[in-house]
Amino acid sequence: MLLTIDAGNTHTVLGLFDGAEIVEHWRISTDARRTADELAVLLQGLMGMHPLLGDELGDGIEGIAICSTVPSVLHELREVTRRYYGDVPAVLVEPGIKTGVPILTDNPKEVGADRIVNAVAANELYGGPAIVVDFGTATTFDPISVRGEYIGGVIAPGIEISVEALGVKGAQLRKIELARPRSVIGKNTVEAMQAGIVYGFAGQVDGIVSRMKRELVGRDGDPSDVTVIATGGLAPMVLGEAAEIDEHEPWLTLIGLRLVYERNVSRM
User: Fold this and answer.
1) Disulfide engineering: 232 pairs with which of 134, 186, 249, 261, CB 3.0-4.6 Å?
2) Quick one: average pLDDT of 71-79?
3) Residue 91 above 90 pLDDT?
4) For residues 44 and 84, is the Cβ–Cβ distance under 8 A?
């Protein structure tokens, strides 16, 4: 079994792979204050419930692949692999790791590991040109060229951040449930805010993606050749409303981690 861990700013998603198939997954909050020992206890509690794994920490785990956008969390996860999984091959996505995707940005080291891993998975599953839209703490747009190159991207405030900002800064507004409203025209404040979030972000996706497509294919290319993949925990909020989204792959980052692991484990 391969354990994959994607530690983002808000949530950490874990996936368990049996070969190429994801057989179990968990989502927990990301807490930068958690120590390696606390993380180890948490992992033991989650994986101890799975019938294919043993009762002891590490039983049944043959490899680990990790990416994180939070440096302190990455540090503690590195310590977890050293102290509790010392005999298990571990790949942490950071500079020097082989991904198979050239990064054509001004400073490749500043590109988030999760965005690179998403590009790896998108290129493997769908080929280029493609655009990954990841709905997380931020909403990110990452284009992959026809040659499978990561060529840059867009970072916008995420859905939850926007909802929180409205609740904090709006004197007569409040935090609301993230849900689809009955219609675009809200009949009350909650529905009006929900409509603004759902249809506003759908419009944002369509606007940015359509411009990206034109840049990707050039003047003589066909924008319909670009595959647009949505991922991230909040992607279902806009699926069906954003016309430019072609595919929904909720485990894109975990799949990318599996691919990166496979491309590096033989070199270790």
Assistant:
1) 134
2) 96
3) yes
4) no
d(CA 8, CA 93): 13
255/132 Cα distance (integer angstroms): 14
Of 114, 134, 220, 225, which residue is the catalytic one?
Answer: 114
Contacts of 190 (CB under 8 A, 6+ apart): 176, 177
User: What is the tens place of the pLDDT at every residue in 167-191?
Assistant: 776 655 667 777 888 889 998 888 8
Active site residue 142: no
Residue type (1 letter), 114: D
